[in-house]
Design brief:
The protein is mainly alpha-helical and about 200 residues long. The protein has seven helices and no strands. Helix 6 runs antiparallel to helix 7.
Length: about 200
C-alpha cells in the first residue's frame, strides 16, 4: 500500500527496499515504534560520521535512515498496529533526524574552518527543511495533500535526504547545503502562494 505522502524517491527507490524489510519484520516481535527509533539512531550515526569527516559512510547512512523511516508505516499496516500516537512520534523523530543530518553536514563542511557563511547557509537549510514540513502540517480547511503533487512537492523529505546522499558521495558538502537552503525555502514560498489562493477561495 503506497502512502499518499510518498515522494518521488520513496515511490521509486525507498519502497522497493522498505516493503520487503517490513515483510520480513512482520514475522518478528519488532514494533513500528521501535523501527522509528532505529531510523533516528541511523541518522545519529550519520551525524557522527559527518562530524568525523567520514562523508561516504554518512551519505550511505543518511539514505539508510530514509529507507528505514518507510519501514515503520508498512510494518504497522502489516501487523495492524497503526496508531495516532505512532504517526505523531514518527513525525517528531523525523524532525530530530533532519536536524542531526543537516547539522552533521554543516560540521563536515566547516571542518576546514568555521566560516560564517557556512553556518548561515546551514541555518537556512534547516529552517527551510522544518518549514516544508510545517506548511503541510498547518494547512487548514483543505486536504493537506495539496502540497504533495507538482512543483510544491519537490522538497519532500525523501528528496532532501537523497540530495544529501548524492552531494556527500560527490564530496560537495557546501553545494549540498546551499541546494537544500534554496530548494526548501523556494518551495515554502510556492506553498504560501498556493495556500493563499486556495484558502481565500474557501
Amino acid at each position: 500500500m503506497e502512502s499518499p505522502y510518498d515522494g518521488f524517491v520513496s515511490r521509486h527507490l525507498n519502497r522497493r527496499i522498505s516493503r520487503p524489510l517490513a515483510r520480513l519484520l512482520s514475522h518478528t516481535p519488532v514494533t513500528p515504534n521501535q523501527v522509528s527509533i532505529t531510523s533516528l539512531g541511523v541518522a545519529l550515526a550519520a551525524f557522527f560520521s559527518f562530524a568525523y569527516n567520514q562523508h561516504i559512510i554518512a551519505a550511505l547512512l543518511t539514505q539508510t535512515s530514509s529507507i528505514v523511516d518507510g519501514v515503520d508505516g508498512d510494518l504497522a499496516r502489516r501487523k495492524n498496529m497503526t496508531s495516532a500516537f505512532g504517526g505523531f512520534m514518527d513525525s517528531i523523530l523525523d524532525r530530530y533526524a533532519d536536524a542531526l543530518i543537516v547539522l552533521g553536514l554543516a560540521m563536515w563542511v566547516a571542518s576546514d574552518g568555521a566560516q560564517t557563511h557556512i553556518w548561515i547557509t546551514a541555518f537556512w537549510a534547516l529552517t527551510g527543511t522544518f518549514a516544508v514540513t510545517y506548511t503541510r502540517a498547518r494547512i487548514e480547511n483543505t486536504p493537506r495533500n495539496i502540497f504533495d503533487t507538482g512543483i510544491t512537492s519537490v522538497a519532500s523529505r525523501d528528496v532532501r535526504l537523497f540530495l544529501v546522499m548524492v552531494g556527500a558521495l560527490a564530496g560537495q558538502g557546501y553545494a549540498t547545503l546551499l541546494a537544500l537552503a534554496v530548494l526548501t525555502n523556494f518551495v515554502v514560498l510556492l506553498r504560501l502562494l498556493r495556500a493563499r489562493r486556495v484558502l481565500q477561495g474557501s
